[in-house]
Amino acid sequence: MATLRALQCLVALVDTGSVTKAAAVLHLSQPALSHQIAGLERELSTPVVERRARGVRVTAAGLAAAEEARIALRAAARAVEAGRQAGEGRSGRLRLACAETMAVWLLVPILRRWSRERPGVRVDLSEFTSSDKMVEILMAGQADVVVGPEPSGTTACMEVLGDEEMVVVASAGHRFAGQSSVSVAELAGEPFVHYTPDNGNAVWVDQFVDRHQVALQPVLRTRSPRTAVQLAGAGMGVTIAPASALVARPDGVVRRLAPPVHRSVVAITETPSDALVSRFMTDLRRSGLPVVDLSA
How far apart are CA 169 and CA 191, in angstroms? Predict the structure, then answer.
């Protein structure tokens, strides 16, 4: 296939009408330019110039090729500029996968700043209810950065952003409202708003209460922690939820577990050296986790 350099030589010949001038424009020696043209002619199986005693004349085939070459060279220049801008964090595409409670809680301020400061960057945001599922998406090459609770395992580059508190939510009329905190043992026998099996919180909650030998009594299940806290606040039962689910404050009360329980929030990527990924990870690190007011 013809190289960009060969196409540049052809276009320069058409523009200048002279091997000497074309070589000077491209800062090449005349033999080097002639070598490029000869290679192009072999590729096309036809002459692109006619060599004369007083110079060269571009053939019809050469003129036709030069017309398309100009398009190819402009496209190549755009490609180089796009890569340069992406390398400088000014353009490109960044695909984010985040836990559904963390889009508003954690990412919105960063995305707002990126929209203002990096208008040439396209950000695609997908929300999930399982960290393990997000890791699958990442490893399949369908996401660039994952943000959420720590998954069960990954070989990708993972950075801990901080710890998120897990809390108990109940209605304002529930006995928990009169307490400053709730022990795990007190959840036994309580109607419990649980999570569907495909939600990572279902596994976390079950493992947590199993370690304390407490049996829950689920009365309904939901895929969303944000829905769980609203249902619990409305008196449908009590629930355990991440603090990030409290952006829309429920009508009920929020109580710390006794002792307090936290889980790590992480950012994961397979391409830490990518310019956009590196800058986004830096912004996540600088931003830190928002502080949630649990007094209510």
Answer: 12
CATH topology assigned to domain 4-87: Arc Repressor Mutant, subunit A (1.10.10)
Burial 153-192 (b: 16+ CB within 10 A, else e): ebeeebeebeebbbbbbbbeebebeebeebebebbeebeb
**Number of neighbouring beta carbons within 10 Å of residue 115:** 11
3-state secondary structure of 236: coil
Q: Residues 268, 154: contact at Cβ < 8 Å?
A: yes
Tokens of 199: 């939600």
Spatial separation of the C-alpha atoms in residues 142 and 108, rounded to whole Å: 21
pLDDT digits over 48-106, tens only?
A: 998 876 778 899 999 999 999 999 999 999 888 888 877 777 788 999 999 999 999 99
Per-domain residue ranges for the chain? 4-87, 92-162+265-287, 163-263
pLDDT digit string, tens, across residues 16-40: 988 999 999 999 999 999 999 999 9
Q: Looking only at Cα atoms, what is the longest distance across the chain?
A: 104
Distance CA 210, CA 114 (A): 42
Q: Which residues contact 171 (CB under 8 A, 6 or more apart)?
A: 177, 232, 233, 234, 235, 251, 252, 253
